[in-house]
Amino acid sequence: MLDAPLQAARALLVPAFEIAGSPVTWLEIVAFWLASVMVFANMRVNPVAWPLAMASSLLYALLFADHKLYGEASLQILFIVVAAWGWWQWLRGHGPGGGALVVHRLSARQRAAVLAAVLAAWPLLGTLLARATDSPVPYADALPTVGSVAGQFLLGRKAIENWAVWLAVNVYSVGLFAHRGLWLTTLLYALFAVLSVVGWRAWQRLAGVR
């Protein structure tokens, strides 16, 4: 029953062209397009972003696993689960006061808690990847992985700070993916970094924050 999906995945992993000597697969091209549209939908607080996130995450899981970035690959599977939760939050979720979930800022204590959680989880995941996989960059892979989990949950709750987290993750990931020769994905994350700033400002306007 899995023969057809596996054959389709293998077909997508066929190189379409090369950038700086590194192959760019059809899978990376499709994932690039889906993820780009997803970010624009997020900026507009459009729930269609979440099914797009699920589709692009599935493709990126295959791509990252093929390049031995196991932390990033596992993260994409988690993204699919969190995207389903975020989709429900945007459609049916409630804010702290019981009203409809709206774009808002975290308190200083909440921001500190998010930062502490990321810094605590980073070495734990890095150690796990170092011991359980053949990843050549386990700790470098682990940092954007835990940062992305935090960003995804903040996005699902419509917290403005999700854009700050994504900006840091995206800037860092540019170097990581360039190191692994994923040039189209490197370009995508550079674009994501710029869009993180744009999205941050757009959500501040929505929340009436200056």
Written account of the structure:
The protein has 210 residues and is mainly α. The protein has one domain (21-92, 108-206). It is 74% helix and 4% strand. It has a two-stranded antiparallel sheet. Helix 4 runs parallel beside helix 6 (138-156) and helix 5 (108-132) packs antiparallel against helix 6. It is globular and about 50 Å long. 38% of the residues are buried. The model has no long low-confidence stretch (mean pLDDT 86).
SSE blueprint:
Layout: H1 3-12, E1 15-19, E2 22-25, H2 26-43, H3 49-66, H4 70-92, H5 108-132, H6 138-156, H7 162-179, H8 183-206
- Classify the helix fraction into a percent range: over 70%
| Cα-based radius of gyration, to the nearest Å | 17 Å
Strand content: under 5%
Please count the helical segments. 8
H/E series: HEEHHHHHHH
Overall number of structural domains: 1
Comma- or semicolon-separated keywords:
210 residues; mainly alpha
In brief, what are we looking at here?
This protein has 210 residues and is mainly alpha-helical. It has helices spanning 3-12, 26-43, 49-66, 70-92, 108-132, 138-156, 162-179, 183-206; strands at residues 15-19, 22-25. Helix 2 (26-43) runs parallel beside helix 8 (183-206) and helix 4 packs parallel to helix 6 (138-156).
